[in-house]
Design brief:
This protein has helices spanning 10-21, 24-30, 35-49, 65-85, 106-123, 140-145, 155-158, 191-196, 211-217, 235-239, 250-257, 288-305; strands spanning 54-57, 60-63, 99-104, 128-133, 150-154, 165-172, 174-179, 198-202, 224-229, 245-249, 262-266, 274-280. It is α/β, with parallel strands linked by helices and 311 residues long. The chain has three domains: 10-85, Winged helix-like DNA-binding domain superfamily/Winged helix DNA-binding domain (Arc Repressor Mutant, subunit A); 99-167 and 279-305, Periplasmic binding protein-like II (D-Maltodextrin-Binding Protein, domain 2), CATH 3.40.190.10; 174-266, 3-Layer(aba) Sandwich (D-Maltodextrin-Binding Protein, domain 2). Strand 8, helix 9 (211-217) and strand 9 (224-229) form a beta-alpha-beta unit. Helix 1 (10-21) packs across helix 4 (65-85) and helix 5 crosses helix 12. The chain is elongated and about 100 Å long.
Length: 311
């Protein structure tokens, strides 16, 4: 059989025409080449496939058993190649029935999904949005095969491969929250105040260590983590009814304060701001529908990013 590296893919088109016509002269006319050129093409096919492909018979030229097995696969491949080479059709969100799948951290889901789904419901009522939780391993295979459209989350946590497209959506920084009537913390806590308190930690994996703990460990300090929960859902209700401190991204703290009476203070630990990003595979860069989704996400992010990080 042929080696793909040395196989002329133009021969596939000639093979398809020859199988339809089963006549070299008519095949040549269909491809607007001379009979001699088509005969040469047939000869090359025979060499590559190590098979006669077409043989003379009293009823005309007949395909070999191998040629017959290749007819449908080659035809399907040619149709797929035509589809790939077509100019992408414009995406009409008002008429689309497409489903998009987004992988997101619960942080990004909490901040972005309410506004994003409201926006899409208004301008594209037939479009569905499915959200999956991000896993510990970056979902590169799902981005490549199209089962996942974009990934949303902290760049430093996701650590996406360099060949993927990455758009920084907005920034955030760590803050801490306590209940408004906390008996001891009534002003920005000092490091001593912070270490003397009991803490609550949000950790999907149940790990007691976070970025704050890593930073504290550099100076030999350690905080007392009294409660760990796997997601954000119960966190504001717990901290609003206890004396614990909850350290979390500032934008999330602002959202929590709208739900329960909390005070927001700076974390007394030097930490950099964090980049929140949207990541997608370059395979889908030019797809109009995919581009439309990314623009909707960017619009929501611009609204979030317009709010300053003031502590």
């Amino acid at each position: 059989m042929a080696n793909l590296r040395t196989f002329d893919l133009n021969l596939l088109l000639a093979f398809d025409v020859l199988m339809r016509e089963r006549n070299v002269t008519r095949a040549a006319e269909s491809m607007f080449v001379t009979q001699s050129a088509m005969s040469h093409t047939l000869h090359r096919l025979r060499q590559h496939l190590n098979d006669p492909v077409l043989v003379k018979s009293p009823g005309g030229m007949q395909p070999t058993a191998l040629a017959l097995t290749l007819v449908e696969p080659v035809r399907s491949l040619l149709k797929e190649m035509e589809r790939l080479l077509e100019t992408p059709q414009a995406f009409d969100p008002t008429a689309s029935q497409r489903r998009f799948t987004i992988a997101a951290t619960d942080y990004m889901e909490f901040l972005m999904l309410p506004t994003l789904t409201q926006m899409i419901e208004r301008v594209a009522p037939g479009v569905d949005i499915h959200v999956k939780r991000t896993e510990s391993a970056f979902p590169l295979p799902q981005l490549e095969n199209g089962s996942l459209d974009v990934v949303l989350g902290f760049v430093s946590v996701l650590n996406p491969p360099a060949h993927l497209h990455c758009e920084i959506l907005f920034k955030d920084r760590m803050a801490c929250v306590v209940r408004q009537d906390h008996p001891r913390i009534k002003a920005p806590p000092s490091l001593a105040d912070y270490l003397a308190a009991t803490h609550m930690l949000i950790s999907r994996t149940g790990d007691k260590l976070g970025v704050i703990d890593d930073k504290l460990a550099e100076t030999g300090a350690e905080r007392h983590i009294h409660c760990i929960v796997p997601h954000f859902l119960s966190a504001p209700l717990i901290v609003a009814q206890t004396d614990m401190i909850l350290s979390l991204p500032y934008r999330l703290a602002i959202a929590f304060r709208k739900l329960v009476p909390l005070s927001i203070w700076p974390v007394p630990v030097e930490l950099p701001d964090y980049d929140l990003a949207m990541i997608w595979h370059p395979l889908w860069e030019k797809d109009p529908a995919h581009g439309w989704l990314r623009e909707q996400i960017s619009r929501v992010a611009r609204t979030i990013g317009a709010s300053p990080l003031e502590l």
